[in-house]
Amino acid sequence: MLIEVRGLTKTFGGIHAVEGVDFEIHEGEITAIIGPNGAGKSTVFNLLCGFHKPSGGQVMFRGKDITGNKPHVTSKAGIARTFQTTKLFEHNTIVENVLAGCAAQTSSTLLGAVLRTPRFRREERESMDKTLELLDFVSISDYKDEIAGNAPQEVQKRAAVALALATNPSLLLLDEPAAGITEEETTRFGQLIRKISSSGITVALVEHKMSLIMSLADRILVLERGRRIAWGTPDDVRNDPQVIAAYLGTDSSDISTTVNTPSTEG
Fold first, then answer.
1. In what order do the strands lie in the sheet with 171-175?
2. 8 A C-beta contact, residue 246 and residue 36
3. 3-class secondary structure, 186
4. Pairing status of strand 79-81 against strand 171-175
5. pLDDT for the residue numbered 86
6. What is the fold of 1-78+169-266?
7. What's the pLDDT band for 260 if we cut at 50, 70, 90?
């Protein structure tokens, strides 16, 4: 068990964004969190990463209580995350963006950088090597010198994944990775997610494109109005009456292809 969540709750101004949610993320699996707009999906990610402090409940990571830990603490523990809106330095190149993430993992001091000590030069070379490896891994080496803000949306999203992978995570949280890209690009992104999983990194994702979810997920958590209404395999979820009702009466045979309109409210 990589992550165990029990009774996770978050209130904003007395309104429950997440209420009493239980679920697990198993090492080596791909776990999906789905639900109608405003169900609390992205809020759950924020609670796992430390961007929000839970109002109640517990988050265990590798058997250690990380409930309410700050983002830099959860990152150091091995949790990385991407966002619905790609967060890159738009005026820098793709390679500069990912290099910044790799360089942040080094131990060189500012004085070492100024004096260009042997350790700094060694770590500088290692950071560049790792950056190029990551760009190759996410298949955007050809765009490395492109200004990030000018790059295609799919490339920006892949760069954001590379930036997250630069932290050497054991768990990668992907928040709506297919938002704003075409179906063909979504299929390719699904292949990248499989590749990440096969490399030994556990993946959890929030996503609205059900075709992607059903093709990738080992387990699915379904939220509605901040509460868990289903948890299980894709087949379990596809045939769950509460899930069908939550998706506005969609017939169970169509749930795997249902596409909802993305929402920043999660």
1. 79-81, 171-175, 202-206, 30-34, 219-224, 227-232
2. yes
3. helix
4. parallel
5. 81
6. Rossmann fold (3.40.50)
7. very low
Q: In this predicted model, what pLDDT tens digit does every residue of 7-21 receive, in sequence order? A: 999 999 989 999 999
CA 216: distance to chain centroid? 14
Give backbone dihedrals phi and psi of 99, rounded to 5 degrees, phi first. -60, -40
Domain residue spans of the chain: 1-78+169-266, 88-168
pLDDT at 127: 84
Give the closest residue to 219 by CA, choosing from 42, 26, 49, 6.
Answer: 26
Q: Is 86 exposed, middle or buried (0-12, 13-18, 19+ CB in 10 A)?
A: buried
pLDDT one-digit tens code per residue, 235-244: 999 889 989 8
pLDDT at 9: 98
Find where tokens 């109005």 sit.
Answer: 225
Instruction: Give residue for tokens 């939550």.
Output: 246
Report the side by side order of strands in the sheet with 64-65. Answer: 15-25, 3-12, 56-61, 64-65
Distance, CA of 211 to CA of 27 (rounded, Å) = 23
